[in-house]
Specification:
Blueprint (H helix, E strand, L loop, with lengths): L3 E3 L9 E3 L3 H8 L3 H9 L6 H14 L5 H6 L6 E6 L5 H15 L4 E6 L4 H13 L4 E4 L10 H5 L4 E4 L9 E5 L1 H14 L4 E6 L5 H18 L5 E6 L5 H12 L7 E4 L2 H13 L9 E6 L12 E4 L2 H17 L7 E4 L2 E3 L9
Bound molecules: alpha-D-ribofuranose.
Alpha-D-ribofuranose binds next to strand 11.
């Protein structure tokens, strides 16, 4: 025998949850179901006293609107999907927080998913979000190309690329000049007197990794005209702390040994710092270290991490504003909002070899 309970969702007891309906609310408030519907969807046409009575009945009965049913009647979901590479990377959560701060103010809720650089995971999350009738999607694509997102454009789903450039007429995008960022980091090390550095990169299927590498190479070409500079490259399959820690042995066994390492992001740099500390290698005296993103923990480390700052929160805010314009403005034109990276010099690279 199962008890029928209205109101709160089922706990772990064997109960059947019968959700409170709009009829229950109407009965408690002493109005018609049409009046309850108006209070929920067009409160401005309902008298203040009636509106208050209905909202009190919603509160006391524990009524929760069925969004799917509401959407089937042509209602909006007030939901936006956010798909990033790695939610455990504070860069993406900070970008999410920026988007959330803008979209929540407009009554939206966000669905967040992490692809871990997998195109298959990305496709399944995008499909699930469309099935939930999200009103738009913010996405850092996992693939080197944007073919996997063509369906969103064909189906007219408002979409903004996060930290990734698109062709002008494809999507709106918010980006950082990662070529410039890679160049800033490498130039800093060369200007500090390093002549032989290693660029520690992530998978070059990720556009940001390719662009940062291009910036490092640009710095080598420019500064080698005056005196020889060298930037060798190591790469790993993912931009994580663990991958950073595992590569330290490879860096220390390079011959000749580099005097500085530039990491493709701060998580790799954190892993390198942990690996060096466990081997009593001094930073920056024995090996200078530079990261990329300028995540919050970088300034708290000892030595504090030099890094290329990406304005992650501002990227998220800008992406949300582009999306809202695409959702609301029939004259919307896709555009790119581009931010400049900034080198933040701290103790991890402050001593010349
Ligand atoms: O999106 C690829 C990388 O760019 C991420 O790891 C993040 O750290 C940013 O720097």
């Amino acid at each position: 025998m199962t008890r029928k309970n209205r109101g709160a969702p089922p706990t772990n007891e064997s109960r059947t949850w019968v959700p409170v309906t709009i009829r229950d609310v109407a009965k408690v408030a002493g109005v018609s179901t049409g009046t309850v519907s108006n209070v929920l969807n067009r409160p401005d046409i309902v008298a203040e006293a009636t509106r208050r009575r209905v909202l009190e009945a919603v509160e006391t009965t524990g009524f929760i609107r069925n969004t799917q049913a509401y959407q089937l009647r042509g209602g909006r979901s007030h939901t936006v999907g956010v798909v990033v590479l790695d939610v455990s990377n504070p860069f993406f959560t900070e970008m999410f927080r920026g988007a959330e701060s803008s979209l929540q103010a407009e009554g939206y809720v966000l669905m967040l998913a992490s692809t871990d650089d997998s195109v298959e995971r990305e496709a399944s999350f995008v499909r699930a979000m469309e099935e939930h009738r999200v009103e738009g999607i913010l996405i850092t694509p996992a693939a080197a190309d944007l073919e996997g997102l063509a369906g969103l454009r064909t189906r007219g789903v408002p979409t903004v690329l996060l930290d990734r450039k698109a062709a002008a007429d494809e999507f709106c995008s918010v980006t950082v000049d990662d070529v410039r960022g890679g160049e800033l980091a490498a130039r800093h090390l060369f200007d500090m007197g390093h002549t032989r550095i290693v660029f520690f990169n992530g998978p070059t299927t990720i556009r940001q990794c390719r662009d940062r590498r291009q910036g490092v190479r640009k710095a080598v070409r420019a500064l080698s005209k005056r005196s020889p500079r060298e930037a060798s490259e190591l790469s790993v399959g993912a931009l994580t702390v663990r991958h950073g820690e595992e590569v330290v042995e490879r860096i220390l066994s390079m011959v000749p040994r580099p005097t500085a390492v530039m990491c493709a992001n701060d998580l790799l740099a954190l892993g390198v710092l942990r690996g060096l500390a466990s081997r009593d290698v001094r930073v920056p005296e024995d090996l200078a270290v530079v990261g990329y993103d300028d995540l919050i923990f970088g300034s708290m480390l000892s030595p504090a991490l030099t890094s290329v700052r990406q304005p992650a929160f501002e990227l998220g805010v800008a992406a949300a504003e582009l999306l809202l314009d695409e959702v609301r403005n029939p004259e919307h034109r896709h555009r790119e909002v581009r931010f400049e990276p900034e080198l933040v010099v701290r103790a991890s690279s402050s001593t010349a070899p």
